Amino acid sequence: MMRDRDTPTPTSPAPAPAHTKTQIATRKMQQPMPLTLLCVLVCTALIHCTAAQMDQSPAKLEQNPCMNKFTCHECIQTQNCGWCMKPDYGDRPRCFLHTPKPEVCPESFIWNPDTSERILINKDLTLASGGAAWAAGGQFISGGSYESNAHQQSSASGSYGASGSSSSYGSSSSSGSSSGFSSSSGSQSASGSAAMAAAAGEIVQIKPQRVSLKLRINEVHNLNVSYSQAEDYPVDLYYLMDLSKSMEDDKEKLSALGDKLSETMKRITSNFRLGFGSFVDKVLMPYVSTIPKNLEEPCPKCDAPYGYRNIMGLSTDTYRFSNEVKQAAVSGNLDAPEGGFDAIMQAIACRQQVGWREQARRLLVFSTDAGFHYAGDGKLGGVITPNDGECHLNGQGMYTHSIIQDYPSISQINQKVKQNAINIIFAVTQNQYSVYQKLSGHIEGSSSAILSNDSSNVVDLVREEYSKISSTVEMKDNATGDVKITYYSSCLTNGPLIKTNKCSGLKVGDKVTFTANITVTKCPTNPRDWNQVIQIYPVGINESMIIDLEMLCTCPCEHPGSSGYEKHSSQCSKFGTLMCGICQCDELHFGGTCECSMSDVHLNNGNKNMCRQGNNTNAADCNGRGSCACGRCECNKRPNPEEIISGKYCECENFSCERNKNLLCSGPDHGTCECNRCNCKPGWTGSSCDCSTSQDTCMPPNGGEICSGHGTCECGVCKCKSTDDGRYSGKYCDKCPTCSGRCHELKDCVQCQMYHTGELKNGDDCAKNCTTFTPVGVEKVKIDEDKDEQLCIFFDEDDCKFTFKYSEVGELVVHAQEEKECPPKVFMLGIVLGVIAAIVLVGLAILLLWKLLTTIHDRREFARFEKERMNAKWDTGENPIYKQATSTFKNPIYAGK
Known about the structure:
Blueprint: H1 18-30, H2 35-61, H3 72-76, E1 82-84, E2 95-96, E3 110-111, E4 116-121, E5 125-126, E6 133-134, E7 140-141, E8 151-154, E9 158-161, E10 170-172, E11 178-180, H4 190-199, E12 206-207, E13 210-215, E14 221-228, E15 235-242, H5 248-268, E16 272-279, H6 292-296, E17 308-315, H7 318-327, H8 340-349, H9 351-354, E18 361-368, H10 410-420, E19 422-428, H11 433-440, E20 447-450, H12 458-470, E21 473-477, E22 483-489, E23 498-499, E24 502-503, E25 511-520, E26 531-538, E27 545-551, E28 565-566, E29 576-579, E30 582-585, E31 589-590, E32 596-597, E33 626-629, E34 632-635, E35 645-646, E36 652-653, E37 659-660, E38 663-664, E39 671-674, E40 677-680, E41 684-685, E42 691-692, E43 711-714, E44 717-720, H13 743-755, H14 765-769, E45 776-778, E46 789-795, E47 801-807, E48 813-817, H15 828-871
Parallel strand pairs: 13-27, 15-16, 15-18, 18-19, 19-20, 45-48
Antiparallel strand pairs: 1-2, 1-3, 4-13, 5-6, 6-7, 8-9, 10-11, 12-14, 14-25, 16-17, 21-24, 21-26, 22-23, 22-25, 26-27, 28-29, 29-30, 31-32, 33-34, 35-36, 37-38, 39-40, 41-42, 43-44, 46-47, 47-48
Helix pairs in contact: 5-7, 5-12, 8-10
């Protein structure tokens, strides 16, 4: 029977006997006691009492996660809980957090399983062709001795350690400690196992290879997995080329560089093979022209179009590779995208025809200058059958289902790549690079690089991409949603472990160890899923560590054949099955010992106070959420079967706890609702389990202090501080836009070294004062936040702006803009003369306008005068303005004649 994992705390020194204290106090009372000393003693006693109360208060406030667990499997699925299956246990709760006393529940009746680990296959890592290998404990042994001192940690069982000689098999104890068999029982020395592996042609790069693991729910188990790149590891390189008309010059260049490519790769590994395949597109409209003439020769000196052709399987014959590439004829199609996905799928799926080896790093170089068709595009040509991901090549290496099946999807390509551990290198032209760079982010282990227009840089491209791939290891797994695996490693440094599944900068012989934190978040609904096989593997390597995982989701006493399982038990009134000390009644009976019958007419005439918590007569039966039957509460059923009301008095439920973002207890990954309160899973806290207890998310990726020393980590998020220098910001409080940083310190050296200006431009001042760095010139300064780069902008004495950035990750690196941004020179004399000329011209224009308007006005007046003169009528008989020289007057009073 499994023992409880509670480890006893160190006992404090026993207190002095009571009579001794009394005697001491009596002797002191007999002596004169100063008032000050008395006050000190009283204060000390009060402080001790207060401290004792404070020490006890957290225990009282601590929530017991084992409460209201009424079955054994519910109990052991709760972290740190054990079950007592003693039949005559009374009304005491059987699910406990702290082990009960032996007289209450003997150890033989306790079921409290522990996480256990057993290493099944543990072959040594292959490092060099000379037979040396890494021992299990992490020491490199090149002689005939083997040393091991392995250490593992498990939060479930406290500590997990091993000390002994290496073996392929181990043993585990019930408490979680493990040890290997002795060397006399089958262990081998490191040099011996490496020699045997070399003799058998077997290469081991991951250790251990197989582990058996029994794991409880929500308990973290740390499992170490080591990786080392073997020397002279085989490489298979398959060159998949787009042979449409636009790639004709690339084909000629590849043919000429075939030997050079082989020689370059053989400098890396002597075990190198090369293959070649080509593709165009589906022979259907609208992908290619289906005119009979064009089906035979779509373009001058072109072959008939086809989907995919495996021209040459993987081989060491580089002369044949060059010859096959040279003889391969180009073809033509209509639309811009090509059928590259069909070719990738067939090149991966047809392992036998292509010749992929089991133990080799597999590289597929995909070369094109165009985009790609993907799943769904086949409908344009009337192809609706989905791609099945199987091999369909005939004896000539031609893809036979090109016009039968649709193009594969990106997820299908990714799945096939993961299954076959293949690294795809997308070698594409500049105009297509951004598309394939995004595509490589969705395909595991793939990368993209820019291919020159005539593929003249293909050798350097393959070498550089292979170097990136081989110098990096990334751990992945195929765990289901019920199992969470988090990786930690210090990579090649001796620093603390950081949360990462990827290490870079590896060379042949380097060994890195990852610590996989494995947690079963919940038991799957289907009991068949309680046993799973999980693979942890390095991306692009056809090796893995296999974990035979058994989830501890049930108790043996719940199954027939166990000593704690009894059908029609007398302790259950012959109406139920005794399982783990409790009765599972049949459909017609209920109660603690199945003593109540559904047909009992006096069912509700019992003592209803037994259905009220604390026998409170004023409280409702079963808290108003159930009915009292036979002195026991039968809780109501909710419409939603996942919402459960439980408890002896129906006082608990699992659907009204606090929510965060409309998720109960922030979601199942954070916690579960148990008895009206959130029971948080490891790593989370808070009333709604929304606060992370881990500070890993506050640690900068490149190491250092929490929140870069400029903030505090609260709920897994950095809260940045404001200082006299400025206000810090960013995810890790590593940004300070208002802080000067080292910009002013580096300014003068950047000026004199890059632009030959500034305070240090004279004499040897620059060479004497600027020795720590040399700025690297770039056309335009861009900030890469992943490298923690800081931007600096200044203006010099000529009012020219110069920009540079610096990074202190590792060593100081400064990049400066090659050309300063200076304002255009101003020609003042030209401006003055221009202004004067403008004034003069404006004045002349005004005068001319005035003169023009005056002339027009005068001409109009003269014309009107002429018109009036012509219209005037004159009397020719008398001049109207003529007056005679004499005047005649008549005397009115003259009467004479």
